[in-house]
Amino acid sequence: MLSKILSKFSCAACKFCCSFRRQSLWETPLFPPEVVEKLSKPNEYGVVGEFRDGQIVLGGYKTDDPEEEVPCTFLDPHKGCILKPEDKPFDCSIWPLRIMNKKGRLVIALTPTCPSIGALPSKALVDLVQDGLAQKIFEYAKLHPEIIKEYREGFPIIL
Ligand code: SF4
């Protein structure tokens, strides 16, 4: 959904948002129930996931280093995400955008750690959000309120 400003090539080469430190586990993607049903048993991808309340469960940290990252179960180190678009979480398709609840108001905010987008929203990103993307995110969140995160300080609000 952000392909106008974020090339698939830079995402494929980076994969930052598909690996998680322990303190980032709140950010692991949420899958809709029908996809959880499919991916939690043997499936076409040959990879079975573990889920809790729709969220992929990751573990397997090998050190005590808080900077250690564990990749998403569905990340292939060479090819990137192995999931077809219809199985990829909405969360992943809008990252680094997030829909958040700030004191009862829903906002679209930028996760400030995406290496390609940067910590502050560019005019191109703001335009993209205002020209229809926000509407799509709000509509999806109305049907899937579980994707709404609590607002966190440091996440610039775009809308
Ligand atoms: S589901 Fe795919 S895009 Fe989302 S975090 Fe996992 S590997 Fe990355």
Write a brief structural summary.
With 159 residues, this protein is of the alpha+beta class.
Shape: globular
- Going by helix content, strand content and strand pairing, the class is alpha+beta
Helix content: 25-40%
Order of H and E elements:
HEHEEEEEHEEHE
* Small ligands present: iron/sulfur cluster
Radius of gyration: 16 Å
Strand order of the largest sheet: 8-7-9
How many helical stretches? 4
- Proportion of residues in extended strands: 15-25%
Mean pLDDT: 93
N- and C-termini, Cα separation: 17 Å
User: How many structural domains are formed by the residues?
Assistant: 1
The main β sheet shows up as: 3 strands, mixed
Strand elements, count: 9
Poorly predicted spans? none
Show the helix and strand layout.
Layout (H helix, E strand, L loop, with lengths): L7 H7 L4 E2 L12 H7 L11 E2 L2 E2 L13 E2 L3 E2 L3 E2 L8 H5 L2 E6 L2 E6 L12 H21 L5 E2 L9
Parallel strand pairs: 7-9
Antiparallel strand pairs: 1-4, 2-3, 5-6, 7-8
The structure holds iron/sulfur cluster (SF4).
Q: What are the salient characteristics of this protein?
A:
25% helix, 9 strands, three-stranded mixed sheet, two-stranded antiparallel ribbon, 159 residues, binds iron/sulfur cluster, alpha+beta
